[in-house]
């Protein structure tokens, strides 16, 4: 569960999975059903599924492996997808929510341990704090977003309790997590089902399939602030 991405006080459900991408499906060790995905679910208010598969299905919904960004029940629309084509959505660039090593577009610093709180004001003692400054490539002034990750590592799992973010053009904010659960490898195949777009997002559903671009900006500013920040909205 999380809050801080959407409207003030609104608590939603998140699911996230980032599996290795492979270019050749028949290559040894490459799982064609592996995916990179993120789900934000605010129930009847709005739901967003962002998913990119190692291998897509040619037809939908044979196995529901269709890459795209889907908005479900936002402004009461059954579903629409981000992109320009009415035939199929544009595969997204799913952000990898790991603490990035220093690189061309990232600067990472360990800030030590701090006491903090997570969702519902639950106390967290001695959280490790990592600061990641993420430069946005292609922006005129090389805009940067700063993320401070507050994590603990019980039983060698990495649990995220809070992410603080701000930037030159981004109002500061905090994402608070509760009941953060690490999915262990034996359960990942079943967990992938969380990221399959529903049948209402298929190409044979009547009505407009491509989301109205101004609405996409509006929904992201309202419900998915991190995505809006990355897009410069």
TrEMBL record:
Top-rank lineage group of the source organism: Eukaryota
Report what the protein is called.
Answer: Uncharacterized protein
Q: Which organism is it from?
A: Chrysochromulina tobinii
């Amino acid at each position: 569960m999380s809050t801080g991405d959407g409207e003030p006080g609104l608590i939603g459900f998140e699911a996230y999975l980032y599996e290795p991408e492979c270019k050749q499906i028949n290559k040894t060790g490459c799982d064609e059903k592996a995916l990179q995905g993120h789900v934000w679910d605010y129930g009847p208010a709005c739901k967003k599924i962002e998913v990119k598969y190692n291998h897509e299905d040619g037809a939908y919904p044979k196995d529901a492996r269709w890459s795209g960004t889907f908005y479900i029940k936002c402004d009461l629309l059954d579903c629409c997808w981000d992109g320009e084509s009415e035939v199929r959505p544009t595969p997204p660039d799913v952000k990898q929510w790991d603490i990035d090593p220093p690189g061309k577009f990232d600067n990472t610093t360990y800030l030590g341990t701090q006491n903090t709180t997570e969702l519902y004001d639950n106390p967290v003692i001695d959280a490790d704090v990592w600061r990641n400054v993420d430069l946005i490539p292609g922006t005129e002034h090389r805009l940067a977003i700063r993320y401070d990750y507050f994590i603990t590592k019980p039983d060698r799992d990495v649990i995220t309790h809070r992410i603080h973010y701000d930037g030159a053009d981004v109002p500061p904010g905090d994402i608070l997590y509760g009941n953060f659960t690490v999915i262990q490898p034996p359960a990942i195949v079943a967990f992938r089902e969380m990221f399959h777009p529903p049948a209402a997002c298929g190409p044979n559903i009547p009505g407009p399939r491509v989301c109205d671009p101004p609405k996409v900006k509006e929904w992201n500013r309202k419900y998915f602030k991190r995505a809006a920040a990355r897009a410069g909205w």
